[in-house]
Here is the input.
Amino acid sequence: MAAAVTLMDMAIVSSGPSPLPGGDRAKPAAPPRPQLLDPAAGEAERSGREDSLRPRRLADYIGQSELKQVLGIAVAAARGRGEALDHVLLYGPPGLGKTTMALVLAEELGVRCRITSAPALERPRDIVGLLVNLQAHEVLFIDEIHRLNRVAEEILYPAMEDCRLDLTVGKGTTARTRSLELPPFTLVGATTRAGSLSSPLRDRFGLLHRLEFYGLDDLRAIVERAARLLLMDLAPDAAQEVARRCRGTPRIANRLLRRVRDVAAVRGHDFIDRQLVAEALRLHRVDSMGLDASDHRLLRLLLDGHGGGPVGLETLAAGLGEDPATLETVVEPFLLQVGFLQRTPRGRLVTPAGRAHLGDPKQVAA
Ligand code: ADE
Here is the structure.
């Protein structure tokens, strides 16, 4: 049964887009972490500066080739039929371009994209307000969709399935349910935790896709494109160096590039070579593989404090003063990806490659 929403609730709904993902209410209080390499950090940057570097069309979007192919076909088919694009769920680690892809889809469809995040949809009227203000075929982007509350989720079910909004008119014994017809629209949901999505919600998406960490060639192309947009004169091997240190994540690549630009500007370098990149990033304690002080602390705690593991997530999080969910969804994915960390049923382990990267004498000798 879909949840019903009273008309009283609706009356004070704002028609504008809700706060952008990651706003005040969007994130749980987490202990501070160096921001430079945190793909989930930097709201002002994401909503403002990052916008200027976002690709606008599918043809400009570098990497995620399978996703682009699938969505390109779906967009062309929907446009050809004069229909709204089917609902899309994008999942994967932060900073890989889920919001960007929602904006690209809207651009390809020739419609507006409304952006919000689940924690901003606390009251029923928040989601109702967004739905009733949608125009035909528009895109509604909900970030962190795994954090939707049950009432909001149940309002979405008939909206997604039948373009219908169920409202309750009146109160108590005189209360009656009324249905409001909505224009066909596309919900693009994004999550770092696909497993936390309820299955009724997951089942209502027609297109589900995981975004992958980017390969070096794609990252270098992204860095070169951003450098052009920022009017930077960057040597090819300097772009490669930024690509190597950005943890497979475009958002981090662009952030590192801006820090390199600062150092170049202050030192009076018009041309940026690899050495300058290495120096600038050393200053920010980003190592040759893109690991920062937090990663080193995690690997060191495992290695020095627990003989390399296995150690449970909660124990590790407590030892680092981190939130376990942040550790699991933000810090660990890249360490797993580069093969420095392993998740086992008994806990986390440092791999031989991780030991070697830290300069563990046992491993170096082995
Ligand atoms: N900037 C950030 N992500 C990008 C991508 N995937 N393609 C091009 N430019 C980007």
Observations:
- Residues 209 and 311 are 31 Å apart (CA to CA).
- The radius of gyration is 23 Å.
- Residues 53-55, 60-63, 97, 100, 222, 225, 250 surround adenine (CB under 6 Å).
